[in-house]
Amino acid sequence: MNKHLVLVGGGHAHMVTLKNLHTFIERGHRVTVIGPSRFHYYSGMGPGMLSRTYSPDDIRFATEHVVSKQGGNFILDSVVTINAQERTVHLESGNTIQYDVLSFNAGSYVPWSMVTGEPLDIFSVKPIETLLAAQKRILELSDQKSFSVGIVGGGPSSLEIAGNIWRLAKDNGKFQPTIQIFAGSELMSRFPAKIRKMAYRSLQKRNIEIIEHDYAREVSSGMIILESGKRFTADVIFLAVGVKPSAIFKESGLPTGPDGGLLVNKFLQSVAYPEIFGGGDCIYFQDEPLDKVGVYAVRENPVLYHNLMASLEGGELQVFDPGGSYLLIFNLGDGKGILGKNSLMFDGRLAFMIKDFIDRKFMRAFQALEK
Questions:
Q1: Which of 181, 192, 196, 296 is the most exposed place for a label (fewest CB within 10 A)?
Q2: Do residues 73 and 33 make contact, with C-beta atoms less than 8 angstroms apart?
């Protein structure tokens, strides 16, 4: 058959496909994986890496090694545009790759539109590798002087980053930082009151300040300016505002959802180009908008694998069912967590132990492919 499958990104939604890459090659197909890093970092364990609860090796998957080991071709590069009519992707390096079937798990990014000037000591929570540079800077400052950290955003990322910065400095530094969260309307506003109460209690116990009912308007090195005009200084600033899908789909003229994600049907297939598929944060599911949480990428895994093979070989496509409610557990950085699913909600050490068990089991399953 000798068709060419191109995967963009080695994230959660491509894990089963990567695990079974050899099956495509054994059936005569060529497989190319394009990614900006030789590793894929698991975002659910990113805050724990920041605090040194986990090492980088604990939370990353050796994408290039797994691809090459099974006979695929890994290209260290980024896709900048797609020419769907010609079935080509254009890379940052200037190279062009032809495909028969194309699948995206290109993730999402944190917008920097509010940042002005030289972004010295400003870090975004994605890509996860950025947290290593942030960790290094926080450790340098915590050995030198009292310092301040400002976190812009009011979602779970802000909660987890704040708690894990506290842990990093407490365990490794001479000085403990002043930490402020600029939460916009309210911290964790889309979550039940009980979850929010647990989050507030955890942060306040560690003197982490939460500033609400005022959005950040502008961020520059050392300074956060709110819409009210209030100004706050911060030695280190984290951007944890809502993530957005990659801009490549809109820029390439592909149909997108209101958030700019690749618009896909019930088969995780582009509504306009049947040979293009996608999963994870970079898609907009036409039937029902999905939260930007890793559980959906994990659920998409087997369907994407099946449908990519079926598309290459003329088989019947499988429908993706998003499933029901999902479990969320937040790492508070102090050995405790907050767990929520439907009416079940609790915090404490057991919550973090459950998260740690699930995360390590997930990583073990896919890191086993590296051996």
A1: 192
A2: yes
